[in-house]
Amino acid sequence: MSDPLDRLLSQFSLRAGVFYTGNICGLHDFDRDEQRGHLHVVRKGQVSLLNQGRPDVRIERPSLIYLPRPERHRLEADEREGADVACATVLTGVGGRNPISDSLPDTVLIELDASPGFAPILELMFSEGFGGGSGRQGALDRLCEVLTIHMLRHCLDRGLISGGALAGLADPKLAKALDAIHQAPSERWDLPAMAERAGMSRARFAEHFHSVVGAPPAEYLASWRLMLARKLLAKGAQAKAVAERVGYGSSSALHRAFVRKFGQSPSEWLKELSREG
Questions:
Q1: 62 in a domain, yes or no?
Q2: Dihedrals φ, ψ of 68, to 5°?
Q3: pTM (2 decimals)?
């Protein structure tokens, strides 16, 4: 059986876009982003992360900062010395909330010497970033995706996952139920059926699931189905076919659940997605 991260990445593709590599001085603003995570790598120099509504973070060593659900924030570097940084957006699936980003804390901060695996990736990234070879942007984006996977692996290994699907899939008993749900979302997954897959009593399963994943089983199931629905709708599948595939009896049932979860209809969401794309 593949590991938890592989199993999620097989469902929700990862795409990174590096939009800046170089030296920064002074203040640099980044807007709230409901669709993408923001990743900042500080290779050299001192930087402050000014994150709206949260205490400022002073970064004095080479570090990786990842904001899976970024609010408006700033990076501030010394006006004279500056700092060498790389900045990127990270899109998981078709944007918005997803099982990978929901498994992470609001701010992930990792000193780069905490794991030797970061060094060769970053060496290549900054070599491409400061170079002028053909295919530079494509190389930067792919390297950033590898860096992001390494960051997620580091979070799993160091216990930095704060619930969600990744935490559930790392739990041997819950993983049996979650894998079954993920592979066959259209099945009739009531609490007894999920608990049976996990080899647990209903009461114990419900309590343990909520404690590890951070949501009741039924709520997680509905979220998983609707995130899969968005993925399929974005690929052009018809609402009726999507409803059947993810476990809703009709397109109208999918419509109602979609509005309850996301505050807009599938058609409204698709229009918004096309405008952003």
A1: yes
A2: -70, -25
A3: 0.84
Is the model more confident about 18 or about 129?
18
pLDDT of residue 187: 94
CA-CA distance, 141 to 99, in Å (whole number)? 22
For 56, the enclosing helix (H) or strand (E) is none
For 269, the domain range is: 171-276
CB distance 259 to 272 below 8 Å: no
**Rounded Cα gap, residues 22 and 132, in angstroms:** 13
| Cβ 242 vs Cβ 254: under 8 Å | yes
Distance CA 209, CA 216 (A): 7
Cα–Cα distances in angstroms (integers) from residue 237 to residues 211, 240, 244, 249, in the given order? 35, 9, 11, 16
In contact, 40 and 85? CB cutoff 8 Å:
yes
Write out pLDDT tens, residues 169-227. 888 899 999 999 998 999 999 999 999 999 999 999 999 999 999 999 999 999 999 98
- What is the C-alpha separation between 235 and 183, in angstroms, rounded? 19
Alpha helix positions (H), the chain: 4-9, 118-129, 136-157, 164-169, 172-183, 191-198, 202-213, 217-234, 239-246, 251-262, 266-276
Give yes or no: residues 119 and 186 share one domain: no
The dihedrals phi and psi of 69, each to the nearest 5 degrees, come to -130, 70
Are both 152 and 238 inside the same structural domain? no
Q: Which CATH number goes with the domain that contains 131? A: 2.60.120.770
